[in-house]
Amino acid sequence: MPISAKYYLILDIGTTTVKAFAYSEDGKILKKVLKTTNVLFPEPGYVEQDPEKLWQITYDAATEIINEYGKPNAMGITNQRASTIVWDKETGEPLYNMITWQDTRASDIAKKYTKVFLLKVGRAFGKIANGLSKIIPGSRKSKRLNYLVTMAFFKFGPNQPIMHLRWLMDNVDEVSKAAKDGKLAFGTIDSWIIWKMLSIHVTDYTNASATGLFDPFFLKWSDRLTKIVCIPKRILPKLIDNMGELGKVKIFKNAPLTAVIADQQSSLYSAGGFNSGTIKITNGTGTFIDINVGKIPMPGRYGTYPMVAIKWRSKVNYLLEGIVQTTGSAVDWLISIGILSDPSEASKLAESVKDSDDVIFIPALAGVGTPYWNPKVKGLILGLTRGTRREHIVKALLDGIAIRCAEVLSIIEKASGIKISHVITDGNASRNDYLLQAIADFSNKQIRRVENLEGTSRGAFLLAKGALNQLDIEKAWSEPTYDKIIDPGKREPKEWQHVFNLMLRYHQ
Length: 508
Description:
globular, 6-stranded mixed beta sheet, alpha+beta, 7-stranded mixed beta sheet, 23 strands
């Protein structure tokens, strides 16, 4: 017999794991089910998953919760944003494996379309607009001017769904035929899971804004970008708000699905709700740093990305995002080569020595993200001697990650024009006390770690509950409880920065 409890079922669907949560009415996690997904590497640069197996894992995780707790009050979905799935609208069958955000097969296509004449003209106008924005008072409040400034820096990325979709239409006969026959459906993970649950073809604004097909400034699928890349709009999902009932999911005891939101936006909502100026760091496999910039979208300067932070009815907030490519994955690498046996060791080892004994670690194990976006840059360990111990290497790695996080924080502060006093942090890698202290020291910002590090699921829970209770999106939010507040010291990364700059020049 299932336990009789009022709860909310939240599905958090990532690249390597699927998590299902039972959240109580007061926001406590009653149960968490974690299942590992199978990632495929059919060729160098190809990173795929089987969409049907991903759905089955999601279904199994949800069913495990329901079997124990019964019918949920409501359901919410949060997910990794930038993977590409295509299927037949009539049969519901996937037409190819899901191409994940880590996949780089579309590099040449991205370079080709970045050079098209229309984008070159857009970049030229954008540069003029960028110059004007620096001298015209109040120009940051102009949505159209900010759009033009973003064009100055725009280029297609090889990991964007728009490029993966173009590759599929060029290389997979079933996909191109379905597109011609009007049967092709494209979507990110949220679209696929909702299709399996409710047989409707939708996506929310936060997921849409990560596809490269969406215009975040005017909240629609981009006429210009879809035309440049020759993507028929009829294959794109309908846009929906983050909060509101989509339908009752028959296979899950007719529970209403009331919230859908991308993972980083969900974490940002959990941290600060609808409040502009909120900035959060999610330390996971990599680090995602997002700031809520308010009602007017900011231009994507200095390698940042403008996106929709959240949307409900007429209320819309925007964000700027910066990314550090390797955080938890770098610690996992230390485990794989035998320096660590468990991630929990890292903080203790780093704190056990006074300094890194002049060891410098550039943690570019998957290239570098904001603001450089250079996948060619490699990791580097410098300064090893016979006296170097594993503690020094661990400390140097965590310092290297923290320095990159501090750099991205500074860039986001500059790009947004918002003065940052404190940063809210979540994600499993935020358990590392030394890493958080190092981020505080190098950035000179106070770091506030939340008690519930599963910020992505908490944001979706607040929205699912708010929709069920017919609350305004601002009233649906409640402030998180903090586990630890870390005040900054003062550290300068001079030698590290010098070595990093040399690495960047070498890999230009």
